[in-house]
Amino acid sequence: MELRQFEHFLAVARNGSFTAAAQDAHIVQSALSASIRKLEAELGAPLFERTTRRVMLTEAGRALLPVANRLVADVVAAHGEVSAVVGLSRGRVSIGTIQALSIIDLPSELGVFQKRHPGIQIHVRDGTAPELAAAVRNGELDLAYLAADGPPAPDLACFVQWQQRLVLVTYPGHRLEHRRLVRLEEIDDEPFVDFVGSGMQEMVRRRFADAGLRHNPVCDATHVPLLVDLVAAGLGVTIIPQAVAERAGLPFAKIERVDFNRTVYLAGRLSEMTNPAARVLLEHLTGKRLASGPASARRGARNRPAQAKSRASAGR
User: Fold this and answer.
1) 316: which DSSP letter?
2) What is the mean pLDDT of residues 34-41?
3) For residue 186, is it left (φ>0), alpha (ψ between -120 and 50) or beta?
4) Alpha helices in the chain (DSSP H)
5) What count of other Cβ atoms lies within 10 Å of the Cβ of residue 22?
């Protein structure tokens, strides 16, 4: 059975005439009659009593009438719901972020976006880069700000990327408090506060291991504010993004001769957003309207990193 058959049935029931119903439905009468006969055959019962003066519903037709009305009304409503989402008067978008994101002020950006699109519900989730990347892959998140010790994940679409510098953070009274440059060897076996489970922690451990030095964690935290508070309390030193250290007001120093830069990038599962709300949020965050086709979207994604790096320099 097809929707148009129910529409034709309702037109006949409404007009009481095949001729008038055909005019109402904008088809020829023979086509409308054939559509009704097919529906009756599929349902296994006549729907109309045909007389020379008027067409009337049978018992089966009267039973079908409310169902047909609901079916057609539901389809109309479905079109309206989809149109509302596509037109961005309604919708939902999910975005994830690493806690040590310092490239942009994401809450402020989302606030501006919400004012422009008040009908769109925004879900924000923070976590470690591996957790967020998995959530993007399985469709839980539309977008996520991720970080990597190297290039972005090859199986995700990268829309924009930056380089983020990590620095050594100490506390007032520490022997390196007034230094602006330190060597990694100077913090061999130094009491360390770890950001447990994060990509930053793995990066720090790899750098110590590659240099043949001992990484000595004495305390760990699962949230950046707590991590900073533990360092400020004198439990140990840590290595975090420079912008985070600057906001915390703690002494920090750049690490010489060892690369403590990581890639921060905005990623999605596919290069072309199928969720209209996610697409318009991506356009807002990158400052560039997306091309319509997948190939064009990939070209645009490759062209954006240089622009984004220049925008990010002020944040560092």
Assistant:
1) -
2) 96
3) alpha
4) 3-15, 18-25, 29-43, 59-86, 106-116, 129-137, 199-210, 224-232, 242-248, 276-286, 294-303, 305-312
5) 21
DSSP 269-315: SSSS-SSHHHHHHHHHHHTSPPPSSHHHHHHHHHHSHHHHHHHHGGG
Which domains occur in the chain, in start order?
Answer: 3-86 (1.10.10.10), 91-156+268-297 (3.40.190.10), 163-261 (3.40.190.290)
Pull the structure tokens for residue 108.
């402020």
DSSP summary character for residue 142? S
Mean pLDDT of 185-197: 95
pLDDT interval class at 290 (50, 70, 90)? low
Share of the chain above pLDDT 90, in %: 75
**CA quadruple 316, 166, 132, 229: dihedral sign:** negative
User: What is the token pair recorded at 20?
Assistant: 């008038």
Asked if residues 144 and 205 have their Cβ atoms less than 8 Å apart, the reply is: no
Q: What is the pTM of this model?
A: 0.71
The pLDDT confidence band at residue 78, using thresholds 50, 70 and 90, is confident
Give me the amino acid identity at 288. K
For the record, the structure tokens of 143 come out as 């977008």
Contacts for 164 with CB less than 8 Å, ≥ 6 apart: 100, 102, 103, 147, 241, 243, 261, 262, 263, 264, 316
